[in-house]
Amino acid sequence: MIAGPRTSERRTELVGAGLGLRRAFLGAVADRVPAAVDFFELAPENWIGVGGRLGRQLRALTERVPFVCHGLSLSLGGPEPLDETLLRETRAFLDRHDVRLFSEHLSWSADGGHLYDLLPIPFTEEAVHHVAARIRHAQERLGRRIAIENVSYYAAPGRVLSELEFLLAVLEEADCDLLLDVNNVYVNAVNHGYDPHAFLRAIPGERIAYLHVAGHYREAEDLLVDTHGAPVVDPVWSLLEETYRRFGPRPTLLERDFNIPPLAELLVELDGVHARQGKEAVHASDHASDHAAA
Q1: DSSP β-bridge partners for residue 119
Q2: With 71 labelled, which of 52, 135, 176, 294 sits at a CA distance of 20 to 30 A?
Q3: CA distances from 76 to 15, 103, 137, 181, 267 (A)
Q4: Cα dihedral: 52, 99, 75, 24 (round 10)
Q5: In a domain, 135, yes or no
Q6: What's the total number of domains in the chain?
């Protein structure tokens, strides 16, 4: 099994706030990466095999800026064998671009072909063993640890464990890391009626590799849809601040997958991440000084 570098070691490389890289942004960031962007994230499936001008632009960027990759298609909880070709191509892509970290969704997305959706894994002990074994296999094939993301879900067929119990069991049995999506915590808490603060308190901070934050769509008072198509709302900002207070100002990726505004607008929202990280860093420093003085 791949032990890999511990999360605390990686954290010295990945810091601050990042954006998902869109092809439409390549020209704008090719010569000068905005100061607000500390790292980029991309889905390797969208770039594997891309050559020509776009491939050269990406390589020039990955040589200058830290990158993380967020997979879409491994289907870690799925019934079919893992796609060995995709694993091999993903590892080559990560190695070629010196990608700092790879993450995937705690979900499944293929059965006789790609379903182009992130479907919920049953919260059962059997599913824990199934997905944990697949994560361990993927880590071996990729030659690095995986950070799995807590996903939004709208139904829980066959549930025996709670979402939190399932997540913690997978992290422990697979010995993998966590991509903590703060927006998904909030969305699921509203949709399924649990306390997001209690959820955060139970998360093992040593496994957190980085964070996601995003906007969502309010279908009804008790139904939020995780769209990544709107600005971050105040309750999610507040939950992000609580996450920083509990775990420190961890690297945070601002997601925006459609209704994408001009880059300048996203940078303003990214400044909101930086401001909250800076506020927590000052608070932690003051607390340490008070403790030392005592």
Answers
A1: 108
A2: 52
A3: 27, 11, 10, 17, 33
A4: -40
A5: yes
A6: 1
Question: 79 near 108, Cβ under 8 Å?
Answer: yes
Domain span at residue 270 reads 7-293
- Joined tokens for residue 280: 């927590």
| pLDDT tens digits for range 5-44 | 333 333 337 999 999 998 888 888 988 999 999 999 999 9
- Residues 44, 90: contact at Cβ < 8 Å? yes
Residue 90 lies in a domain: yes
Asked if 16 contacts 251 with a C-beta cutoff of 8 angstroms, the reply is yes
Among candidate residues 11, 1, 6, 9, the one with its CA nearest the CA of residue 143? 1
Q: How far does CA 256 lie from the centroid of its chain?
A: 13
CA atoms within 13 A on the CB side of 129: 2
Q: What is the pLDDT of residues 257-270, one digit of tens each?
A: 888 899 999 999 99
CB 94 within 8 A of CB 146: no
